[in-house]
């Protein structure tokens, strides 16, 4: 029997929800790994809505669960219904929705608050010693909830202009966590906490390299499950 994995989304679209390519890559690699996947998202209003064509704010309101349902092809549940006892692992794709809807990192940085259902989900899997996979900006969730853990968001310097958000690594360190520098096609495994992270679109890289990096994260999560 394949591993049972929960995938948590934050909306639909890089600037105000889950990054679509990251969510799709995770689902493809989970499918290839024989996992049984169920998708969840919090039933809350988005912090903001962005016109992805113009890159500017839109004067409308959207719901995170409703928007995430686009990526889930309608087969999705409220995050409040997720029971860690029913799964072997949980994975969080990235996208600005993680930093806006799942927590307030986009506004408050290291002083952010984490959504109550996101926090309880992370705590439940961690307490049960079940693996947690996070990519792109999502590792900040672990950094905030589990002081002392090890994560990667890529590099801690803007190497060759490929890591424009490298200051995130410093903020993670200020939270008392250890940032591990990794390339885009790699992931880092914090064996003590069973947390697996990869930088994905935190690096300016070809899509296939991001896809491969997410693949290493999924593979490591399934190994730990």
TrEMBL record:
Domain of life: Eukaryota
Name the record gives this protein: GAL3A protein
Species annotation: Rhodinocichla rosea
Lineage: Eukaryota, Metazoa, Chordata, Craniata, Vertebrata
